Amino acid sequence: MNWVAWKMLNGDTAKYLGAVFGVAFGVLLITQQASIFVGLMSRTANPLRDVREARVWVTDRHQQNADEIEPISDGAVHRIRGVEGMDWAVRLYKGVARARRPDGIFRQVILLGIDDHTFVGAPRTILMGDLADLRRPSAVFIDKAGHESLWPGEPLQLGREIEMNERRAVIVGICETSAPFQSFPVVVATYTGATRFIARERKQLSFVVGAPVAGVTPAEACRRIKAATGFEALTYDQFVWQTINYYMANTGIPVNFGITIVLGFIVGAAIAGQTFYLFTLENLRHFGALKAMGVNNRRLIGMVLLQAAVIGAIGYSLGVGMAVAFFEISGRVLPDLRGINIPWQVAIGTAGVVVAIITFASLMSLRRVLLLEPAVVFRG
Amino acid sequence: MPTALQTPVPDPPAPRPAVGVACRGIEKEFGSGETRTRVLHGIDVDIGCGALTLLVGPSGCGKTTLISIIAGLLDPTAGDVSLFGTPQSQLRGNRRVDFRARNVGFVFQQYNLLPSLTAAENVAVPLLVARQPRKRAIEKAADVLDAVGLGSRLKAFPNQLSGGQQQRVAIARALVHEPRLLVCDEPTAALDSSSGQTVMELLKSVAVHPERTVIVVTHDSRVLQFGDRLLEMADGRIVLDTIPPSHP
User: Fold this and answer.
1) B20-242 falls under which CATH superfamily?
2) Residues of B with CB below 8 A from A380's CB?
3) What is the Rg, in whole angstroms, of the alpha carbon atoms belonging to chain B?
């Protein structure tokens, strides 16, 4: 009878497609919005992810995330290095500066200052230039999206000059970085160079990053650093989640995206549920005839569930396919959406939502089918 | 006549009674309290095999309710129906559904063909219900369609067939699993005179069989000549049991 159910479904093309696209649209909405949400939240921790060598992050003890930074004194790095169990520790600057082109056009940029000697935290993907050139006076790298933002429509080019804090900087390299939460260009300099591009403060050091020796866990190293120095010391994972949780708790982003995701669920459930329900209603006469001919309720349930499962599976595949296409295309066209894709957790979660939508639609329909008196077939 | 329609398969152990349907004290009420309505008032009737029995009467007299009870689609409020020696009151749930699937065929006023299935596929449905393999079911359906004169329209969909042809497909579907009881509800009501005659001739020639009981509910006086027996109902009772006037 599954074959009959399949043929019944295909026979009413308009309703079949209506239900499929109802699910697909809901899936598209949910998958796309959930993925952007996850991508945005993930971006808040991207500055940390780009410093892959660091297992331990040391900051001011009142710091709440990776973007709002209370500088600590430069000498802190020596104190951290002196903590038992630490293998190495270096300075890392992260701040915001204003980069101005010679013609006056400017943009706010994220300025990273990496350790002059070890280059810990340097970009991994170099598109143009040589990382060693960062040691030259006034040298900076800029990320590709930043270059396109400051010089839109122009080809990537080394040797361009910008001004930060009335100091000249020369672009000696172009790199890829993980997209930051604020969508600002990322400018990378040495720590010494970076501190020249910012207004002078008594304390300038954003982070000390480091790693413990073999046999000492990052968590244990952090505990020792806290005890020895009074600074906040966090493992990489702790700092990532602290940052993400800060943005979750202190911005309207989760609420806004959550509303859209709920709307996607409602729209998907309403369209798919109603269409499938109407499909079943219009076929009640035929279900009645099948009942009269000896199809028992268990087999009827199987037929309805099969029809619902087909709609759900095709709708889900179409919806996820459309979402994948959206991110593929938008990632190329819109720099702000680069690097955002569909996490497998979102794909599975959306599948769960589709199961819920389809279950809801099936239950509405099944109720009518199961309560149907087979004698209804004699009522012309 | 092709063999596809000639040999109904009886339930193995039971002896074959000449009486296919035996109704004893059938009463049926709908609703409750003040809205309770009695539709059937103690129907007692035996309907034999090998004949075409017409059930006639005005609208609302209880014909549809009676055939629904006979076919096992409705439970009587009182009394019992015995089909080929098996009291329906002894069958419950899926056992009754299975009994119906094996022993009862239906022809409906509105044909009730599945619009997305071809004629052959529609006819194969009762065999699929009986869990026969699809290929074999469609092959047998093709044989039966041939027997009702639609061998050339096997792959036609219902909307490509005339009303008379659709009813012939419905008759083929009702007979394909060789039921021992065939229940037809106003089979000519939606047809013109010529098609109605064709359908009744078909029922008379193909469906009527010594081991099968055929009951046709009808309002159509033009088809009375095809009946071997006429049961007339009024107000929930059988008021006339006779041989149709123009019966040969």
Assistant:
1) P-loop containing nucleotide triphosphate hydrolases (3.40.50.300)
2) 109-110, 185-186, 189
3) 18
Q: How far is residue A336's CA from residue A309's CA, in Å, rounded to a whole number?
A: 37
Q: Cα dihedral angle (B210, B8, B229, B110), rounded to 10 degrees?
A: -160
Residue in the block written with tokens 């239950």: A363
Top mean pLDDT of A254-258, A276-280, B132-136 is at B132-136
Q: Distance (Å, rounded) from C-alpha A323 to C-alpha A354?
A: 15
Using CB atoms, pick whichever of B97, B121, B185 lies closest to residue A378.
B185
Q: What is the mean pLDDT of residues A344-373?
A: 84
ipTM of the complex: 0.82
Q: Residue B67 and residue A286: Cβ atoms within 8 Å?
A: no
Comparing CA positions, the residue from A294, A346, A283, A291 lying closest to residue A316 is A346
**Is the pLDDT confidence value at A251 over 60?**
yes
Which sequence spans correspond to the domains of chain B?
Answer: 20-242
User: Which residues of B fall below an 8 Å CB-CB distance to A?
Assistant: 64, 67-68, 71, 73-74, 94, 97-98, 100-102, 104, 106, 108-110, 112, 114-117, 121, 125-126, 128-130, 134, 185-186, 189
Joined tokens for residue A135 = 């040691």
Q: Name the region of A11 (left: φ>0; alpha: ψ -120 to 50; beta: rest).
A: alpha
- Tokens 């008196």 correspond to what residue? A373
Q: With pLDDT > 70 as the criterion, what percentage of chain A qualifies?
A: 99
Q: Say whether B239 sits in a helix, a strand or coil.
A: strand
Token pair in block for residue B190: 């939606």
Report the b/e string of B193-208 with b at 16+ CB within 10 A.
Answer: eebbbbbbebbbebbb
Nearest C-alpha neighbor of A58 from the set A228, A262, A180, A249 = A228
In the predicted structure, residue A85 carries a pLDDT above the cut 70: yes
Q: What are A337's strand-pairing partners? A: none
Reported as a single tens digit per residue, the pLDDT across B138-167 is 999 999 999 888 889 999 999 999 988 998
pLDDT at A335 over 80: no
- For residue B186, give the nearest of B99, B112, B76 by alpha carbon: B112
The span from the CA of A100 to the CA of A164, in Å, is 6
What Å distances lie between residue A131 and A44, A89, A151, A173, A365, CA to CA? 25, 21, 22, 7, 65
pLDDT digits (tens, 9 = 90+) for B84-132: 888 988 888 888 888 988 999 988 888 889 999 999 999 999 999 988 9
Nearest to A357 by CA among A16, A23, A15, A19: A23
Span A200-209, mean pLDDT?
86
Whether the model clears a pTM of 0.90, i.e. scores above it, the answer is no
